[in-house]
Write a structure and sequence with these properties.
By secondary structure, the chain is α+β, with helices and mostly antiparallel strands. Helices cover 24% and strands 25% of the residues. It is globular, with a radius of gyration of 23 Å.
C-alpha cells in the first residue's frame, strides 16, 4: 500500500484503500435503508456512488477489521497500538485555514433540513434513523476544546437526539451548561480522515485538544476552519458538518433503542436534544455511515492499546506487547505481555483496571504470543493459581451497555458500577523459568521433511 501523504483527506484515504483492494464499489443506486445490510455483507469497505433520492454517496465498513483499520492509516497491523502511542507522544497543534472544502455548500437556520441527508435505519430494532460517525466539538470554559464520538438520532428537520447517557467529557461539559440553564454550542464533523476519527475516540486527559493528537498521528497539523454559526473550529477537509447547540432540556428526550458497540440491541434512553443551526458540506459529499459493532470497536482498539502502554510506562513496567481482544469488543478485555520483575503481574492488573473501559486483564510473560489464544490459555492454565493470581475489584465505573450491571434498575441519570478482574498468568515468584521449558523434537535441525515427501 502506498504511504499516507501529509495532506491526505477522507476521500484520498478511500482511494488509497481502494487501490490496495480494500474497497468494494457499486454504481447502482442504493436505498438508504438497505445500506447497513449491504455493508454487513460486503467483504470490504462498501462504497455506494449513488443513493436513491439524495445527492450523496455513502460509504461504510471502513474500520470493520483490524486489517482495514491499519490500512486506513497506512500502518502495519501488529503495530497499531505502538504507532498510536508514538503519535500521542508527539502532538502537533492544528492550523486554521480559510479554504475549507467542508464549506463549499452552506445552509443555515430555517433553511436547515436534516431530511435532505440519507440518514439510514441501521438495525432492525433501532428507534429511528441514525448518524453514527460524527466527531463532536465542544468548548469547556477554562479547560479548552474537547472532541469525542457520539451518535445522533433523527427527530425532526432541525433536531436530533444525542447519546450522553454514560459518563463522558461531553456529558460533563453539557452538565455544567444545563445547570446554568444555557444551551451548549457544538459542531459535528462527518467524513474525517482516520487520524482525526481515531484521535476523537481516544480518551485524552481534560485540557488536551484531540486534534493535536490527530496531528501527531498524521505527522502534520490538522487543517481547521471556523464554523459559520457557532464559535468552534472543525476539520476543514471533512465531508459534512452540522453546527448547532445542545438545548438545556436535560435528559428528557427519547433516544434509541440502538444497536450498541457490544453487539447487543440497546434500550430506549432519555437524552438531550441537538438543534442544528447550519449544515455545511463538500460538493458531491460522501456520507460515512459507521457500522456497529466492529467499526466502533476497532476505532477504540488502537487507542485503548495505546492508553494501556502509556499507563504501564508511567508505572515503570517493561511492556513487550498489548492486545485488545475481539471478544472483548477491542477494549473491554486486554492481554498484556511483559518482562516481569517481582510483583509486576499484579501491578499491571491494578493499573489497567483503573481505565474506565477495561473490565478484564490477562498478564503474561514475554515468551507468550498474546495473539495466539491457545498460548494465552496455556499460560493461564499452568502459571496461575486461582486463590493467589486472580484479582477482583468491586464498585468501579461501568457502562450502561453492559447488561450484567442491570442498567434498567437504575434511576434516571444514575451511573452504573461494576466488578472487574485480572488474571496474573506470569511465572509465579519462586518457580524457576526452566520448569516451563517447552519440548522440542530431537535432531530437528538435522533433517528436512521435503527430502522425504
Amino acid at each position: 500500500m502506498s504511504p499516507v501523504t501529509p495532506g491526505e483527506d477522507f476521500r484520498a484515504m478511500l482511494s488509497r484503500m481502494e487501490a490496495a483492494g480494500h474497497v468494494k464499489r457499486t454504481s447502482r443506486p442504493v436505498k438508504p435503508q438497505h445500506f447497513s445490510a449491504l455493508c454487513t455483507q460486503s467483504p470490504g469497505v462498501f462504497l455506494a456512488e449513488k443513493v436513491e433520492g439524495y445527492d450523496f454517496s455513502m460509504v461504510g465498513g471502513v474500520f470493520w477489521t483490524r486489517a482495514r483499520t491499519a490500512a486506513s492509516m497506512g500502518w502495519p497491523e501488529a503495530e497499531l497500538g505502538r504507532k498510536f502511542a508514538a503519535g500521542v507522544s508527539r502532538p502537533l497543534a492544528p492550523v486554521e485555514v480559510s479554504d475549507a472544502p467542508c464549506q463549499e455548500n452552506i445552509v443555515t437556520h430555517d433553511d436547515v433540513d436534516l431530511s435532505a441527508i440519507p440518514i439510514p435505519l441501521m438495525h432492525e430494532k433501532d428507534g429511528g434513523p441514525y448518524l453514527s460517525s460524527g466527531i463532536v466539538f465542544a468548548d469547556e470554559p477554562g479547560v479548552g476544546v474537547n472532541v469525542g464520538c457520539y451518535r445522533l438520532m433523527y427527530r425532526t428537520r432541525r433536531e436530533m437526539a444525542i447519546d450522553l447517557f454514560t459518563a463522558s467529557d461531553l456529558r460533563r461539559i453539557y452538565g455544567k451548561a444545563f445547570e446554568q440553564g444555557k444551551p451548549l454550542p457544538i459542531a459535528v464533523a462527518f467524513g474525517v480522515h482516520a487520524f482525526e476519527h481515531m484521535a476523537a475516540a481516544y480518551k485524552a486527559p481534560a485540557g488536551v485538544n484531540e486534534m493535536e493528537i490527530a496531528g501527531g498521528l498524521r505527522g502534520a497539523p490538522t487543517r481547521m476552519v471556523r464554523c459559520k454559526t457557532v464559535d468552534l473550529m472543525v476539520p476543514a477537509d471533512a465531508e459534512m458538518v452540522l453546527e448547532g447547540e445542545l438545548l438545556p432540556n436535560g435528559w428528557t428526550a427519547d433516544e434509541g433503542p440502538f444497536g450498541e458497540f457490544a453487539g447487543m440491541q440497546g434500550d430506549l434512553k432519555h437524552n438531550p436534544i441537538f438543534r442544528v443551526t447550519a449544515i455545511t458540506h463538500r460538493n458531491n459529499p460522501i456520507l460515512y455511515s459507521l457500522q456497529m459493532p466492529w467499526e466502533n470497536d476497532w476505532l477504540n482498539g488502537p487507542a485503548t492499546e495505546a492508553a494501556c502502554m502509556r499507563i504501564l510506562s508511567i508505572a515503570g513496567i517493561q511492556v513487550t506487547n498489548v492486545r485488545a481482544t475481539e471478544g472483548g469488543c477491542c477494549g473491554w478485555s486486554m492481554v498484556v505481555a511483559i518482562r516481569k520483575r517481582a510483583g509486576e503481574g499484579k501491578n499491571v492488573i491494578a493499573a489497567l483496571l483503573s481505565l474506565p473501559v477495561v473490565k478484564q486483564v490477562i498478564v503474561t510473560d514475554d515468551d507468550i504470543n498474546i495473539y495466539d489464544p491457545n498460548e494465552v490459555e496455556w499460560a493461564v492454565t499452568f502459571r496461575c493459581q486461582a486463590d493467589k493470581d486472580i484479582v477482583i475489584l468491586s464498585g468501579m465505573k461501568a457502562k450502561h451497555v453492559d447488561p450484567s450491571v442491570r442498567p434498567w434498575e437504575m434511576k434516571p441519570g444514575e451511573l452504573p458500577l461494576t466488578s472487574k478482574f485480572g488474571i496474573d498468568a506470569t511465572i509465579p515468584e519462586g518457580i524457576p523459568a526452566f520448569r516451563y521449558e517447552r519440548i522440542a523434537s530431537a535432531y530437528l535441525d538435522q533433517v528436512r521433511l521435503e527430502d522425504y515427501i
